[in-house]
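Quick one: structure for this chain?
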Amino acid sequence: METLKFQILGPSGGPTLVCLHGFLGSDSDWFPFAQEFQRLRPDIQILLPDLPGHGESVSIPPQNITARLCETLEAAQISRAALAGYSLGGRLALAAAIEHPQRFPAFIGISTTAGIENPDERNARCEADAKLARRLREESFESFLRDWWNLPIFESPKKTPADEFLASRLTQNPGALAEVLEAWSPGSLPARWSELRTYPGSALLLAGECDAKYSLLARRMAESFRSAKTEILPACGHRLLEEAPLELARAVVEFLPANFGIGPSTPRR
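Got it. Here's what it folds into:
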């Protein structure tokens, strides 16, 4: 099985944090967070994969993502890691953590959910995402991206200009993204709510204060795990990697020592 393309930031051989980006993203979405995180914890390496259909992993199909992620860590000679995911990446990270808790004993979900439970809502979401996939295959990619950027979920006091978003996404392959959207639609991925209680590790759930839907989901998820906490970041929306990288880094740095078996570190100045 072909492994995901990835890069590692920080020292090799030490504790590892693996970070999964969201739909339309790439490993570079995590760079602002990684810069702040490594200033605070220079002893922890960060592994940043490109998910299938995205970035340097554009030719990799979206099937068997958990097994592919585990094999990617094997290729990087990493046996155990804290696992973080943003939005869709959070859904994928959650599945991996539940299925491989010894490999991923700490889960960090950012602007994410454990899935859609209602069958009618699942069917409606599958139909909606199938239409979006057709748009990706048949219409202007730039038009798709502009409409995506204007979705209500991305409204925020810290929202950046659309041109910045377009410039960072137009290099992606719309055909590959259509395949990803069909495979990983929230209507297709299984809901994991009933499995959260079985996860033996610890979880941190983060959301933006202005992202009402995902703030509620973060609190519900935290209540469903055996051991979890919630951080709601003020004056932020859904795109926390862009809007609050320092605040995210501080929250993760505070969470990891007690929940990932690592000691304190003296930060760089």
